[in-house]
Write a structure and sequence with these properties.
This protein has no helices and 4 strands. It is mainly β. It is elongated and about 45 Å long.
Length: about 60
């Protein structure tokens, strides 16, 4: 599942959530500021990039 949007400060948020079977999932989130122009990231200045894995306890 992919999603994207903007917050009140006009930062761009892009995320991905992937379910793996019944008990595991992986997700990632990138937040950029499009007002910054001189950056290597295609969507503006990178503010946050995070990813995680999770598993359900039985």
């Amino acid at each position: 599942m992919y999603w994207r949007g903007r917050d009140l400060d006009e930062n761009r948020r892009m995320g991905k959530h992937r379910f793996i079977g019944k008990d595991r999932a992986e997700a990632s989130l990138v937040i950029t500021n499009p007002a910054s122009t001189k950056t290597a990231h295609p969507f503006g200045k990178l503010k946050v990039e995070i990813s995680w894995k999770q598993a359900r306890r039985k």
